[in-house]
Amino acid sequence: MIKEEDASASQADVLAVLASNEDGLNSEDLMKQTAGMDVKARGEAVNALLSSGKVEMLPGHTPGAFILRLRKGTQIADATREEQLIYSLIEESGKKGIWIRDIRDRTGLSQTQMRKVLKVLEQRKLVKSIKAVGTIKKCYMLYDIVADESLTGGTFYSDQQLDSQFVETLAHICVAMLQSKRKFSEDNHKNDPAAAREFSFVRSTEVAQFIREKGVCRVQLNIADIESILSVSLLDGFIERRADGMYRALTAKTTRCAPSYCPCIHCPIESDCKPGHIISPQNCEYFTSWLDW
């Protein structure tokens, strides 16, 4: 029988090894790094650490394999090993969540087992599921976490649908503000076209401040939201954006060369646009309009 002090020493050695390997170790690597430890002592140390919650076991990269690592997340009360395992994976995923397929692949649980555990965690209000914009797949995250905008679509989406009326109204207000700024600048610098042009440009922060001060929107908008709205007006040809990121209203008589009208040049989500994807040239109304122009 292993003495209590020897057991404590073995546990301390295992903890020290795992502490120096943040992503954890599989059983083979743990054996190599604790080669001087008795096999039985190592096994009992690992079991004791798992029972105490100091160490957690995650599925390995091959069937039947596992990884031991220091517990990073929360130990939930009255949970089975499977419930704790899935909860830890969901907790680790943060506000971007984890897809149900990834949970299945990383836990090695059957579909039935996994769904049963997820149902229990949802009933206990420990986790929640959401459907990301543009997909019907379920994504899980902790119950109190606010989902990342890449999943919800952000401020301008409601129930996975773009609030086009809200976007159109805000775009109209932003353009009107820029038009007013341009007129004011031109009226005050009638004899200096260069100054009239320079002072007609506005930063997105100024537009955001204007929206806040006028109280035209009950939703809290950040700078990124305002720039998204300005990008819509830019694509619609109502405003222009300078290289330094400042904006100015365009007049009806303003002319531009044909290539400058290509929406891809100004599109804020150009990096996400790929043929065959949800965001693609095939379903882009701006690109279609440009081709028909």
TrEMBL record:
One BP annotation, GO: transcription by RNA polymerase III
Q: List localization entries.
A: Nucleus
Identify the SUPFAM superfamilies for this entry.
Answer: Winged helix' DNA-binding domain (SSF46785)
Q: Which domain of life is it from?
A: Eukaryota
Record keywords, A-Z: DNA-directed RNA polymerase, Nucleus, Transcription
**Family matches, as Gene3D superfamilies:** Winged helix-like DNA-binding domain superfamily/Winged helix DNA-binding domain
* InterPro entries cross-referenced by the UniProt entry: RNA_pol_Rpc34 (IPR007832), RNA_pol_Rpc34-like (IPR016049), WH-like_DNA-bd_sf (IPR036388), WH_DNA-bd_sf (IPR036390)
Q: Name one GO cellular component term.
A: RNA polymerase III complex
> Which family is this sequence assigned to?
Belongs to the eukaryotic RPC34/RPC39 RNA polymerase subunit family.
> Which PANTHER family is this protein grouped with?
RNA POLYMERASE III DNA DIRECTED , 39KD SUBUNIT-RELATED
Q: What is the annotated role of this protein in its UniProt record?
A: DNA-dependent RNA polymerase catalyzes the transcription of DNA into RNA using the four ribonucleoside triphosphates as substrates. Specific peripheric component of RNA polymerase III which synthesizes small RNAs, such as 5S rRNA and tRNAs.
Which protein are we looking at?
A: DNA-directed RNA polymerase III subunit RPC6
According to its UniProt entry, this protein's organism is: Cercopithifilaria johnstoni
